[in-house]
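Retro notes
What went well: the complex prediction finally ran end to end.
Inputs used:
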Amino acid sequence: MSDFFDYSENSHTSPVAARALFSRFQDGDWDKLRNFSAVRRFADGTIIYTAENAERAVYFLSAGKVELVASNPASFHSPKIEISPGSVFGILTFLDGHARSVSAVAHGAVETLMLEKTMFERLAAWHPRIAITILNDLAETVASRLRQHNVML
Amino acid sequence: MSESAAQIFFRNFTKMEQRVPIVIWQVLRVMMLCFTVAVSIALVYVPERALPIFWGILIPILPMILVIAPGLWRQVCPMAFANQLPRMFNFSKAKDLPDFLKARAFSVAIIFFVSFVAMRAPLVNHAGIVLGIVLITAIVLAFVGGTVFKGRSGWCGTFCPLGPIQRSYGQAPLVVVRNGFCHTCVGCQKNCYDFNPRATVFSDVFDEDPRYAAQRRLFMGLLPGLVLGYFLQKTTAPDNLITYWQTLALFCAASVGSFSLLLSFTRIDPYRISLAFSAAALAIFYWFAGPLFVRTVGGLFSAEAPAVIQIAAQATGVLAALGLALSGWWSERNHTLSKRAASEAKFNVDIRELTRLPQSVTGKSEATDRETGASFPVAEGASLLDAIQTAGLKINYGCRSGFCGADAVAIIDGAANLSPPGEDEIATLRRMGLEGKARLACVCQVKGPVTFDRNPKAPGGMTPTQIRRAQKTDKAIASGIKKVVIVGNGVAGTTAAQTLRGESLSVEITMVTNESMHFYNRMAIGRMIYDPTGMEALQLVPESWFAENKVTVLRNTVATKIDTVSKRLMLGAGDALSYDKLILATGARAAMPAPDFLSRKNAFVLRSVDDAQSIRNYAQSIAARRAVVIGGGVLGVEVAEALQHFGLQVILLQRADRLMNAQLDETGSRNLKRYLENIGIQVVTHVVVKNFDGGSLIRTVQLSHGPRVSADLFVACLGVQPNLLLAHNAGLETGRGISVNAAMQTSNSDVLAIGDAAEPKGMTMTGLWPSAAGQAEVAVATIFGDQGKVASQTNMLRLKSEGIDVYSFGDIKPKAGDQSWKAHEPAEAWWTLVLRHGKPAGGIFVGPPGSGKLFVKLLKENAADGAVKELLAMGLQQT
Ligand SMILES: Cc1cc2nc3c(=O)[nH]c(=O)nc-3n(C[C@H](O)[C@H](O)[C@H](O)COP(=O)(O)OP(=O)(O)OC[C@H]3O[C@@H](n4cnc5c(N)ncnc54)[C@H](O)[C@@H]3O)c2cc1C
Ligand code: SF4
Ligand code: FES
């Protein structure tokens, strides 16, 4: 049972169970994904994106820490969250193209793998299976975050 | 505190140990219930003794308990006990609280509480009987609630007037006492305080449902005003009840108002504001109730309480408030840590895979974009443009060969880590007025760290000392040429003007163009269909260049006739320009599928900026959904992709049996078709458009084998026809284009023709940008009596798509004696290579984006045997 308030449909299983994204990737899929995404590095303190940004891109954090800061203090769901390597951020704007709800700031030397929506569509044209896996896993992440919205992320 | 410790801090009750045996609690509960009943009875029968004890001792103690260990109260609260009896003895109906009650429960609790306080001075403070009845009624209501509703939803967590107070003063308990009534949680209410008392406040204040959160916030905002309003007025029966309540209401309103002001106009976190208001209410309460408590206790022993102790009681209240504030701050801190831990634990990506760089990246070369601060590695052999695009940064580009100048960038740092500029690049930069100041990203190889700015005029760039033009003699004076008129301001005409000015400061240069814009990047107009910012990106030469260099450009002006005898060019407006030399750079126009094609409102071609804008505007104005592109050559494919990118359903019709049939072989075309279909473009080959149906709008195109295809707009991309009417009417020799010799002279040696309009004898017309620019330089050399000759270049044709690499160059079909190579099949990337005397004579490449770089590099470097071995290593196979 979750420590916090959990209003998911099935409150017996934790929606926050750890699970690796893209665990269904096959050999070589990562290389293909890398070919369609961009390595971007940011020096300490660099703003990776601001809250108004609507650039349709999702980031996978490979090194350093990133602080996600809510633009509107009333949306407490993350006045500040620091995320570590392995985390994914920026999924919502990637999916819906609306402005981001938080800004992302590099803490320390940050390296990310960035996948843009247009690049994703091209990836889908060449490797539909990989694209389905990515979309599926991102959707699962979002669904799960929605489910535990009140778990005070 | 570590993250796991922070999580322990927020353990819910199910994870806590039951430290005090339940029996003890039960005994205490029974005692407490009896005590309350006794107090109620005493209030009725001996109010003069019971009332002071109730208001002076019991009530002042409660907030302190709520700050320190609210769970203690919740374990023994007589109302809670009464409420839980049916659950304990299993006779509760355990119904879900209906939704409408759930939504209103908190309001009911607030109304109970505020009314109770408002009635204190007028009634309850002195009418023991009323107070006694209220207490008993509350216990009965709690019990009834327990018989009907499940968990603690019938009273404790919902309607109980003490609930809001507990959630305020007890929002950051110093000691958490385990919920002793729920064995397991049955989920009877939202954000249950008994489930997790430390976390509740965060969930309350920031609840998804704005009304839910607002009600909780409102209560905390109202509390200081209510307490102050109560204590600052008489606590005995007021003289004027209405004034009394009005004053109380005013205090509440002021309190809520300041709360809202802080919330609306400061950036202070709502949680902190709520915490501060709760703490303030507590301090105010003890400021008044502290001394009262001391006096009442003293009264019990018939002793006068010394002033110091009364002050100490007030100070204790302030300290309690401080304690609440500190505890709240600590709670908030832990909460942030817990959230972090929670978010880190899930949905992570395999970090080993993430940190593995693309194979081609060695690590040394890194480029940094000044604007965004983003740095990214540059793959070996990749140009700066490739790297910028791979990094997902927006940048304009056109020819990718250093001719068009679309991708000029300022180099802020590390200029020495770029390959030195070649002649083409220097010429283009000079034309753009950026010589020595910027570089063209497409032709810069990155060898070490570089910082660039995508605005080529950004300050802090290279100092314009690296390349300097040598002082030359004025060639026009030497050759006696005074006036040169150029028709057309495309790349051919503009390069001619720029080269002329480079050779001579005195020659009078006039350009005539029927377009409204100064020279722009025609190759990039396709992007304007879907990219509204495309316009600025098209400009390749600053407008000021023309004035600064005394080049007169007559825009919106049509050249109508050439009088080769009097050497005059007639203009549409009736005036004429005399010339010593005339350069015809009239380019080409789009071929039409039918003579009246463009008379239909929804029929378009793509040759100029105006065309691109018309397509975009029309599609937007009618909210077009479907487009038909006629012609599956390079331009047709580019236009189809642009329209698809713009959001239209696209059908691409191709007369030949495959796409780009002039540039690709069957496999290459098939792979291109598959890619286009995968991104949603419907490709139909081997079809001939017979007819366009409809009136002022085309409704459908009829195909020669019968079917009709309907769409909202139609774009014809059927190749180009050189603009040769002017030359033809002047009696100059023409063929497919204006016939010229190798020096670009037409049949009249004072008239030269260049670019898409010209047809050099013995050469195929390429219709490509670099050829046009090259011919312009030759023409200028000719004008000044120098020997210029067009190098027969093998242009590399590239499909301008970011989703597929398509290159075609030279002879794609081997001739006798040639060696030919091709990729293994099935392969993701398809390529062929024709070698003539050991050197590449032609080839094609069709593959995923970015995969063709090495192939192109080898071809460009005119790779010989060694390179072929490299290609072989990449999977090429001899046919
Ligand atoms: C969408 C598109 C994409 C392309 N992509 C590529 C590519 O990727 N690579 C490549 O190498 N090439 C590409 N091209 C071709 C390239 O743009 C042309 O080869 C090049 O523009 C030719 O230049 P030009 O100066 O000869 O003619 P143009 O650029 O056509 O300029 C001729 C000018 O003369 C004007 N004019 C004509 N007659 C008169 C008159 N009587 N009076 C006044 N003005 C007149 C015209 O209005 C026009 O402005 C592309 C072309 C298009 C349309
Ligand atoms: S929500 Fe759970 S913990 Fe809270 S009162 Fe109801 S049953 Fe008990
Ligand atoms: S894209 Fe670099 S000069 Fe044309």
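What we learned: The two ends of chain B are 69 Å apart (CA to CA).
What to try next: split runs per interface for comparison.
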